[in-house]
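Z., the sequence and structure:
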Amino acid sequence: MSDGRYRIVDCDGKIGYATANNAVIISPRFAFGFPFKNGRAKVTDSGHLEEVKGSDREYHYWVSDNWYWIDKMGNRIEIENETDR
């Protein structure tokens, strides 16, 4: 749980978000999404997992060229100040 939302994953591996009382607010539709912080989450519709070198397959991270931000209802938002990313 982060900022009132937690990530959920459907059977196809798509990411969505739900509330503390298990209400699905954003249906799974993202390839990957970070937890919410300060009312927004960084998400992507594409990409792939890569292993952290030297982690012996224990740690991974998501690689994408198409990240964007959503609000707590799943609406895409623009970030005006690049340092806010």
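The chain has no helices and nine strands. The chain has a mean pLDDT of 94.

Let me know what you think.
H.
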